[in-house]
Amino acid sequence: MGHRYGQARGQATLFPLMLDELVDQNALVRVVDAWVQALDLKALGFAKAQAQRLGTPPYDPGDLLRLYIWGYLSAIRSSRALERECHRNVECMWLLGRLAPDHKTIAEFRRQNTAALVASCAAFVQFARASRLIRGSTVAIDGSKVQAVASRKAVVGQRELAAQAQRNAQEIAAYLRLLDSRDSEDDQGGDGPGGGPGTPDEVRAALERLKAEGRAIANQAQQLMRSGASTIVNGEPEARPMRSLNSQPGYNLQTAVETQSHLIVAHEVVCEVNDQRQLQPMAEAASQVLQQPCTVVADAGYANGEHIAALDAQGITSYVAGERSVNHQGGGNLYQRSAFVYDPASDSFTCPAGSALKRKQLSRKDKMVVYAAQPSDCADCEQKPKCTTARQRFVSRHLHEEALEANASRLAAQPWMMALRRQTVEHPFASIKYLILGNARLLMRHTSGARAEFSLAVMAYNLKRVFNMKGAPWMLQALRG
């Protein structure tokens, strides 16, 4: 028995297929098309949403938005790769009606519409709320690092900037000496330093370039001094070297995921290398989207007493894993802080032996109040070997200790909240980083570009999540109204 063979490549067909027949009626690409049709692109702020009367007609921003959403769903983010798909992918041809914009047009659309892409992502969350897909008020917050466009070679510190400034000053001095010698004679031959220019005009042009480089180095040094950081990234100063990225420059991506639908209701791109100051802004952003005070769950990286107290004041309940210090002196056999009783009336602690530890100093940086026992009390105490190896015992108390203790009590009463956090927030990040971004670096510079890319990735994830939950027929009907 022979094999099955297809048609000859040169064979003509009497009834050519329509593009619509090549795309399944329940394909995800049809949902992408319906979603973009439902958007008010002009209200969202997309450039060229209003058709021009004069000049060459531009591409409809809706078509380019369709292309990008489809591309991120297919793990295709490069403008050149998207250009190739417009010529060979049937779904892409159907989506754009056989339009094939060049890669510069595709890339320029993403660069010009960073804020509009963020607004489009927020619009899908509101669509999910209006469709009652998001019904809960509990969100899990987490962060992850993604590599920026800049490479590790772009990371410089004070020492590197000082060396660059010194080399720049030496080159300028060399060209100044050369210019003095050329001004005294009309010599068109010879080379400048290191094979540089020869004529006086060329020397002056090179000198201006070196001075511009010197000013740029000085500006970087000033930015580094103002930020208080130890390093700065050339070409992308908002990025920070991330330890989890092997010190590559990157950004910290934050998400708030609703625990029932597992949809990302709020997201942000920050430059912080840790999550210590992200609890309150992310919880407030999620509450604003859900239009009610929410319940937030986060890991120990978000433990911040000031933020927990601020959220309590707003009616936002938090469950944050504790990250309290432990006394390891004396091999860990000394009294822990819990053995000391705090008295709010006198603002003092009482030790197990009954002596008082009074307020000694305030550390505004660590937001801690330090209490100390009298050296005479510790010297005569029989329990001192179990308490401290120092001359006197010190105990610290957080400025927002009540909020931290209330959070610990809530977590002790409902320990399963941490398991809820893991099963809620880990999957969206895994999908975004490995299935959508392809575990690769971002393609756009600065926080605005990172927000645009992350918004496209979040929109693609949420759209695919709803598609898997409800199916294409429901989504098409809901989007078409």
Features:
4 domains, single chain, 481 residues, Nucleotidyltransferase, domain 5, alpha+beta, flat
Report on the architecture of this protein:
The protein has 481 residues and is of the alpha+beta class. It folds into 4 domains: 19-112, no CATH class; 138-149 and 246-321 and 406-454, Nucleotidyltransferase, domain 5, CATH 3.30.420; 153-233; 336-392, no CATH class. The protein has helices at 19-22, 28-38, 41-44, 61-73, 79-88, 90-96, 103-112, 114-130, 158-183, 200-227, 279-290, 305-313, 375-379, 384-387, 401-413, 416-436, 446-470, 472-480, and strands spanning 138-147, 155-157, 231-233, 240-242, 248-258, 264-270, 295-298, 317-320, 341-343, 348-350, 356-363, 368-373, 394-398. Strands 1, 4, 5, 6, 7 and 8 form a 6-stranded mixed beta sheet that branches. A hairpin with a 4-residue loop joins β9 (341-343) and β10. The two termini are 54 Å apart. 33% of the residues are buried. The model is unreliable at 188-196 (pLDDT under 50).
